[in-house]
Design goal:
Helix content is 40%, strand content 14%. By secondary structure, the chain is an alpha/beta fold.
Length: 397
């Protein structure tokens, strides 16, 4: 790899355990998500307590600290007491970036992923407002290196539109929505969400759909002692595959040609196969669907919408995805570290990236490691972006 630094399109904050208790509207205070210590297997652990689900052990989301001690991160289970403060302290976060050779990060939630599962719309909106305000404060410490993505509740589309506008004014560079709607809400084939898609496109506010936020396979990860956890990891691609099919085949991207969505931490080795299958089966079946079901055919192949509207993160090993990168489009892959979660390689991200990109041409490596993220989140004309572009390999930009 060249000497330019890496960027992460999918990193995480670690919200303070008392965030919602301290800040949520008074009417929801007794229902606020919180961190409590509870005994498990003879040891005290930190658990997230939130409405409607079993307590959730938080240590996996803080596990980067294990590598600092030179230990096995699988043994790290102490929670906030042993976590790196860069999860909630922006000054410390910049130190974590420097140690890892990362120039800037797009920051997503940790605890609030599971708040997408809340069934009370008003409570969810209140929790998301608290998080969005806190994240704006966190990122304001160094807005050229700390890039915030807000959380948007889609139970009420009009409220979602207002919150997205507010978040853009706060300085957030994107908004996260359900990976798939819960069972009691319209699916993504419905025009119920059209007003929100239109607003996101008009605001040029890119959207994020992250694993664990949905209403289907996401719920297999309710608790880290549940044997279904491993099942959820293996089934991770199923939910984004369904969402992609619903949105593309129902014409969402034809109605909103400027809409962009980043599927974060949903893996990407499956995407070339999905594109091939979607094109094949669409061509085989859309004719009878048009005759019998009054289906409105697409103007292009399903795979064309992937290449124009959808981005993906590349993290962990993902060797197959890198080998197949041209099938999905190099310009639509963004490198991610997942810091400080258990999957991250901090503080050894750069050696990992060098192995991952060892057979990738330097111009393509730069796009995946930096350029695509700057373009997707519209950061090229920021000090961070201009610095990165100035250090790009000759002929890339």
């Amino acid at each position: 790899m060249a000497d330019y630094k890496l960027f992460s399109a999918d990193s995480h904050v670690s919200e303070p355990g008392d965030l919602w208790v301290e800040r949520i509207d008074k009417e929801f205070q007794f229902r606020a998500p919180r961190i409590e210590q509870r005994e498990r297997n003879g040891k005290l652990e930190d658990f997230m307590i939130y409405e409607g689900k079993p307590p959730h052990p938080v240590s996996v989301g803080l596990a980067a600290a294990a590598s600092v001690k030179g230990g096995d991160r699988n043994e790290f289970r102490s929670g906030y007491g042993g976590a790196r403060p860069g999860g909630w302290d922006p000054a410390e976060r910049l130190k974590d970036q420097d140690l890892d050779g990362v120039e800037g990060e797009v920051l997503h939630t940790t605890l609030a992923f599971r708040l997408f599962w809340l069934t009370d719309p008003a409570l969810q909106r209140a929790c998301f407002r608290v998080y969005n305000d806190w994240l704006a404060e966190f990122c304001s410490y160094s807005p050229n290196r700390l890039i915030g993505v807000s959380l948007i509740s889609l139970y009420d589309v009009d409220a979602a539109v207002k919150e997205l506008r507010r978040n853009k004014e706060q300085g957030h560079k994107g908004g996260m929505v359900w990976l798939s709607p819960p069972a009691n809400m319209p699916p993504y084939t419905s025009n119920f969400y059209d007003k929100f898609w239109a607003e996101a496109a008009d605001l040029h506010m890119p959207l994020v759909m992250h694993e664990i936020t949905g209403g289907a396979e996401s719920h297999l990860s309710q608790a880290y002692w549940d044997p279904n956890l491993i099942l959820q990891n293996v089934l991770t691609p199923h939910e984004p595959q369904r969402t992609l099919a619903q949105m593309i085949l129902s014409g969402v991207f034809e109605r909103f040609p400027d809409l962009k969505i980043f599927f974060a931490e949903t893996r990407l080795g499956w995407i070339p196969f999905w594109m091939e299958e979607a094109d094949y089966w669409y061509e085989r079946h859309h004719h009878w669907a048009q005759r019998l079901l009054n289906y409105k055919p697409l103007k292009e192949k399903p795979s064309d919408y992937i290449k124009r509207h959808i981005w993906f993160s590349c993290q962990h090993v993902e060797r197959v995805a890198i080998e197949l990168r041209h099938h999905m489009g190099v310009e639509h892959i963004m490198f991610a570290t997942d810091f400080p979660h258990i999957e991250c390689d901090w503080p050894n991200t750069r050696p990992f990236a060098e192995r991952l990109f060892s057979e990738v041409p330097v111009d393509e490596t730069w796009k995946i490691a930096a350029g695509n993220m700057l373009d997707y989140f519209k950061l090229s004309d920021t000090p961070m972006g201009r610095k990165a572009l100035a250090g790009a390999p000759a002929g890339v930009v």
